[in-house]
Amino acid sequence: MNQITLSNKDRTILSAVVDYYIRTGNPVGSKTLLESYNLCWSPATIRNTMARFMDAGYLSQQHISAGRIPTDKAIHLYINSLMYVQKLSRDKIGFINQRYKEVSGTVDDLLFETSSVLSDISEFAGLATLPDSKYLEINSAKLVKIDKKKILLIIIFKGGITQKTLINLKNEIPEDVLKQLSHYLHSVSEHMTLDDLKTTVLSELQYKKDEIYNEIVRSILKLTDHSHSESSGTDIFIKGHESLIDKVNFNNTEDIKELIKAFEEKKYLIEILSKVMDGDGIKVFLGSDHGMMNGFSLVACSYGDNKRLGTIGVFGLLRMDYSKIIPLVDYTAQMVSNIVSNGGYYD
Question: In principle, which of 1, 111, 298, 327 could form an S-S bond with 128, CB 3.0–4.6 Å?
Fold first, then answer.
């Protein structure tokens, strides 16, 4: 039997099994369920219902004498239709708001703090990916001379995110040319994206014969290929993975190596998080979803105003308390979206 229609009794019993697993991490039998949740059915009725769940793929049993644990299928059902999502407490909202009010600087600072906030509250690993700045709206752009053959292109995006690109020139740039170019960029860049700016610069400047102009134009045209802040050196911020590793009961050393490798190389996490960009709202990936590691789950959400710019999330044990983690990720994503898009905070 692959599918069953759930009665109120079925929903109550299945919810109890999942809740017990989330709280304890242990298999559960009918007698323990009855005593722990004050159920109004006999142990035999509960046992028969759990047997039906086994046939339908909602529960599994490691040993004949052992209790049952929920499968990924059961946890998905629990999250989507059985679970009561708690509201984020006033204390946690205040804690998050205060942490963000203390953030200043680049997008790196914002998202590093985001991964830290998520980890501190969830006690799992907090994740945050950098936005692709080619989609952000520009507030201003200017050129600053560093020395005779080096200039710095500074682009400030809506929300205060700053990107700095060092341009090495073959020849010294005259002060009047630098001022002209800087004034030009400032005058045309407001409300543009990087792609818009590149198109404008290409059409208006590329045919100038001055080699210095052409060098700067070429540097601006390369921005799409290097659209993340140079200071970060990474596409993702991860905080709290050490404490997650300490929480895991590994069956063998290969499992430990796999998890450590995922955090060190980051490619696996970036690939999983990229799937969140395909739709709106909170996404929950369990052990069997999208190449996730068995025994783990990811609660994630994209951030951005009209465009999905990046992703934040919590990576933790399969038995994390989704009723608390989901509202945490949701509210934090709203905060990041507001800061990136408007440069403001919720009160």
Answer: 111
Question: Contact, 88 vs 49, CB < 8 A?
Answer: no
Same domain, 97 and 159: no
The answer to whether the CB of 141 falls within 8 A of the CB of 197 is: yes
Question: Taking every pair of C-alpha atoms in the chain, what is the biggest distance, in angstroms?
Answer: 89
Query: Counting Cβ atoms within 10 Å, is residue 345 exposed (0-12), middle (13-18) or buried (19+)?
Result: middle
pLDDT, tens digit, 9 for 90 and up, residues 55-91: 999 999 877 777 899 999 999 999 999 999 999 999 9
Name which of 95, 125, 131 is nearest 111 in CA terms: 131
Please return the burial class of 271, using the count of CB atoms within 10 Å of its CB with bins 0-12, 13-18 and 19+: exposed
What distances in angstroms separate CA 238 from CA 22, 118, 329, one per listed residue? 24, 10, 15
CB count in 10 Å sphere of residue 94: 10
Residues 246 and 331 both lie in one domain: yes
Prediction pTM value:
0.79
Residue 257: inside a domain: yes
HSE-CB at 214 with a 13 A cutoff on CA atoms is: 7
Task: Give 237-276 pLDDT, tens digit per residue.
Answer: 999 998 888 888 766 677 778 888 888 888 888 888 888 8
Rg over alpha carbons for the chain, rounded to the nearest Å, is: 26
Query: Number of structural domains, the chain?
Result: 3
Cβ-count burial of 39 within 10 angstroms (0-12 exposed, 13-18 middle, 19+ buried)? Answer: middle
- Crossing angle for the helix pair 194-205 and 211-221, nearest 10 degrees? 160
User: Please, are residues 345 and 101 in contact by the beta-carbon 8 Å criterion?
Assistant: yes
